[in-house]
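Hi R.,

As promised, here are both runs. First protein below:
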Amino acid sequence: MIDQLPALIVIIPLAIATLSPLLSMISVRLLRIVVILAVFGALVCSVLALVKTLAEGPWSYWFGGWEPPWGIEYVVDPLGAAMATLISFIGLIVAIYYEPFVNPNDSKLRKGILYALFLLVISGLVGIVVTGDVFNLFVFLEIASISTYALVASGGKKATVSGFYYVLAGTVGASLYLLGVGYMYAMTGSLNMADLSVLLQPMADSPAVMTAVVMITVGMGLKMALFPMHGWLPGVYANSPPPFTALMSSVMSKVSLLYWCNTFLNTFLIPFQTKMIMYQGTHVKRFF
């Protein structure tokens, strides 16, 4: 079980999210208890992973026995495990105190869908901080983003308008990020972050690589509401249902910022510095 912790951090809330609409038809109270237990399970797995990484260093997990860079890799380091713990902890608080904000006129199925979307946000966010693959990062980013769009729009008429602006900004950001990933894959044939930091070294001054850097920077900047690309943010915070505003304001943009820094410093900055030190004879040190 301990060996599967990196996967369980993501799988537990993701699996319960798929069952939430069905559970809501049986009992909304039962669904609430199961949702709280699912987020608590993700929190426990995150804490155990944090303890292990602090004691033994970064933890590489391969899916299906496929060794990276061919297979999907999760890389849990102390910073990522700490962030997963923070996401799960805040998600647990939101899940516990969400019930008073539920509209009593909503149908059981609607309540089940809202809980499912909430769990998908948690699953996407913790997936972002543990993945070691740039395309897998895009997948988790969109799982969290699309679920958030729907949760924001559930707050009423004003929230629907704010959610629409959020969808526009998020779609442009995701498209730019994906195009940047496409440029990197076309140049290297790899999507693994550690592998890319090596393969990009001889082509650090390539126009294609520079284009990828710009696209990923602007795309993630839109996702994390980086100035001056933050115009969508005030309306979303003001009009969203309070529990989701608490979750978004505390971790959503911070996760995007963390992983943009991680990707930029480890995947891009190392090749650029390597190109520079060919003339200086110094040594490059990884930041994360």
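And here is the second one, sequence first, then its structure tokens:
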Amino acid sequence: MTNKHQCPVNLKSTSDGWRGKLAESFTFDNIEILGEAISRFIAQKSFFKRIVIGYDTRFMSKDFALFLSTLFSKNGIEVFIIKNPCTTPLLTFSTLLFQSQIGLTVTASHNPRFDHGIKIRMGYGGAPLTEITQDIEKCLLIDTNNLLTTKKGKVIEVDPINDYTEKIKGFLDFSKITKQTKVVVDSMHGTSRNLLKKITKNTGIEVDYINYNYDPYFGGCPPEPKYETTKKLQSLVLGKKYDLGIAHDGDGDRIVAVSQNYGYLSPHDVSAVILWYLVLKKGVSGKVVGSSTLGRRVRLLCQHFGLEFQEIPVGFKNATQIMLNQKVLLAAEENGGIGFGFYLPERDATLAAGILCEIESTLVGGVDYVLNEVEKLSGKSVFSRFNFIPSINRQQLMLLILKLRPKDFTFLYCKKYFQSRWSKNYSYK
């Protein structure tokens, strides 16, 4: 009997995987369909039959991960399942560590608590290119019996945390610390807890955490680090209890920060600070890649430093493709994703946090000093983000917007075609 499946209509394709609502479209039935397609994709590509699986702190993440482990094992694929909730960058690292050509993590990243999803990572150390996820979706229509085996694969529980933290530590230099530094990290009830603490152990940097416990409700708000979700973090740093504050999203691939003098630092600020430090203090060079929503500050720094800057569409997979083929120093997104060409073609917020700690502890004036120097070169910056929900068809809306002259594209015009529900994330310097 031929077993053919149509793609689950409510399981939305994302830039690096699939996402849906828990118990609505993200169900064991739909995950089984997707898992079978991934199994067929592995067989079709003649990959070495091995996969690494991780999961985050959401409802039933581990249950879904174990379910997929059993499914892949049944299909003759050896499974390395990470022992505890892990960041997506840790899953990416583990895919290389265990010499697998594909890995996945059960996560919905920064999205609301009842969203759930699956992210794919490849053996080259980054997000899948568009054709890879498309090929997996094509495998939804392949005859199940043609490519799969009856020989079971092993399921092996692994704990790569020490290997990962040692790898990240190797990119950092805490040998010239000038002061005892206190850092507070908001892990937003997600997967990044303890990572920075392990990396900075015995360095003179003290790391504390807030929102440390695993909570599938994420304290009542989505685990997305931005101005309005980091008020407690800001209060602790602005109240001089800590020198530096850092916040990550639910799966640990995004970062924002807080400094004592400047307060909340948007992803635009963080990426500019890190770029300035890597170029002027670490002597690193290469192309800089930035998403179209990143703003002008990083571009202006590149002009000053004589570095090539390339603007890319939103979605880190666009940076990944460039990082695989060119010498890239830094790749940054407006949402706080930062990747480093001297590591993997992947955003890694823990490595970014480690660099901020190095800056704060080794330079007189720390992050505030660097940001002041950045403003001397690129001017002061204002970042404002408004999230709207369209009240008309998105394609119609874009046609209207494309007809506008820049001076006509006003906030009041936007409100005419959007629902009144909106939130803001701002950083006024």
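A quick note on the second one: The radius of gyration is 22 Å. Let me know what you think.

Best,
J.
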